[in-house]
Design goal:
Helices cover about 50% and strands about 10% of the residues. By secondary structure, it is mainly alpha-helical. It has one domain. A two-stranded parallel ribbon has the order 1-2. Strand 1, helix 2 and strand 2 form a beta-alpha-beta unit. The two termini are about 25 Å apart. The relative contact order is 0.18. InterPro entries: HypF_C_2 (IPR055128). It comes from Salipiger mucosus DSM 16094. This is [NiFe] hydrogenase metallocenter assembly protein HypF.
Length: about 60
């Protein structure tokens, strides 16, 4: 999907990425992409809400 959208940046979030093994395997598959990983925001619902707020802010600022 990132390639189709013309971006090299992929954000990985959601509770499933609290699983270190899954996160590691997905990162290996996304080699060559700039990855945004759950470090400063939690990987669970709190991080998703934070990301949604950032998208909303970006959309508001673009209008």
């Amino acid at each position: 999907m990132a390639r189709e959208a013309g971006t090299r940046t992929v954000a990985l979030s959601g509770g499933c990425f609290q699983n270190a093994g899954l996160l590691e395997r997905v990162c290996e598959q996304l080699e060559g992409f700039e990855l945004c990983l759950p470090r400063e925001a939690p990987a669970n619902d709190g991080g998703l809400a934070y990301g949604q707020a950032l998208v909303a802010l970006a959309r508001l600022e673009s209008h």
